Amino acid sequence: MRSIPTITRCLLIINVAAFLIAKFIFGEIYLLGSPLLRLNYDLGLHYFTSPDFHIYQILTYMFMHGGWDHLFFNMFALWMFGTAVEKAWGEKRFLIYYIVCGIGAGLIQELAQFFVYGMSPALGLTVGASGAIYGILLGFGMTWPENKIFIFPIPIPIKAKWFVCIYAAIELFSALATTGDGVAHVAHLGGMIFGYLLIRHWQGGGQFGMNWNFKMPNFSKPKDRNQAHDERNKDWTYNSEQMTREEKIDKILDKVRRNGYESLTAEEKRILFEK
How crowded is the C-beta side of 70, counted as CA atoms within 13 Å? Predict the structure, then answer.
C-alpha cells in the first residue's frame, strides 16, 4: 500500500470500507418492520423522478458496490491504472478527474433513463465506481497511447489507445444491444465522455493544463499537395519530439516507482509536469 499514491490509496480504502459497512454493519436496518436504513439503497443513485432520489446520490453512488466481483474488478482497475495516472498528473488533478468522471457517468445514466422512462419513476438503482474507472482508462490511454498492455483473453499486447477504443466499443455495443443485464453500460460511456471533455479542456490551456501526448486527428477540408507535405513534416517532427519526451517521462516514472517522488531532481519534476 505504501507504493500506491495518496489519492488512489484513499479511494481504495473508502470503497472497500463502504462496501464492508454496507454489507455487514448498516446494510439493512428495520424498525417495526419498516426499513430504517439501507445503505446501498439510500446512497445508490435513483432515477430523478423517484421518491427515493436525493441530489447527494450523484456523488455517493460511486462508492457503493453491488457485490464482491463488482468491487474487486473496479478496485483492481483503480489500482492498476489509477496508480500510474496519479503519479503522472499529481494528486489534485487526479482527484478532480476521478470525481468529475464519476458524477458525469451518473448524469449520463440519468439522461439515458429519461429517454427510456420519461417522467415515470424508474425502479433501477445505479451503484459503483465503474464510470470513474472508465474515465481513468481513457486518461491512461490518452497519456500513454503507444504503451503496450495485455488484455485477457487476447494473447498479444496491444497499444493503450486501442485498448481504450476496444472497451468503448464494447460498452457502446452493450448499451445498444443488451437490456436488463444489470450493468450500467451508458454510465461507463458517460465516464469516458466527461473524462475526454475535461482532458480537452486541460489540453486547451484550462486550469491544471498539461502537455498531452495524444494528438487529435484533423477533420478539416482536404489540403493541397504542398500544404499536406509541410504538415506531414510537422507531424513527423512533432511525433519524434513526443517519442523523445515519452522516453524521458517513462524513465522518470520508473524512478518514482523505485525511489519515490522526492528522489526526483528539480529538472525531472519540471519535465514531468510542464505545461
Answer: 18
Rounded to whole angstroms, the Cα distance separating 256 from 90 reads: 12
Residue-wise pLDDT for 225-234, tens only, equals 555 555 545 5
Give the other-Cβ count within 10 Å of 7's Cβ: 22
Are 63 and 18 in contact, with CB atoms under 8 Å apart?
A: yes
Tell me the residue length of the chain: 275
Residue 10 is predicted with a pLDDT of 95
State residue 251's pLDDT score: 81
Contacts of the segment 39-42: beta carbons below 8 A, 24+ positions apart: 39/64, 40/64, 40/66, 40/125, 40/127, 41/125
Alpha helices of 181-263 — where are they, by DSSP H? 185-203, 225-259
- At 219 the pLDDT is 32
So what's the pLDDT on residue 246? 73
Integer CA distances (angstroms), 202 to 7, 124, 209, in order = 20, 34, 4
Contact 143, 85 (CB under 8 A): yes
Pick from 56-60, 78-82, 165-169: least confident: 165-169
Of 126, 68, 79, 81, nearest to 102 by C-alpha is 126
pLDDT of 37: 57
Find how far residue 237's CA is from the centre of its chain.
31
pLDDT value, residue 205: 63
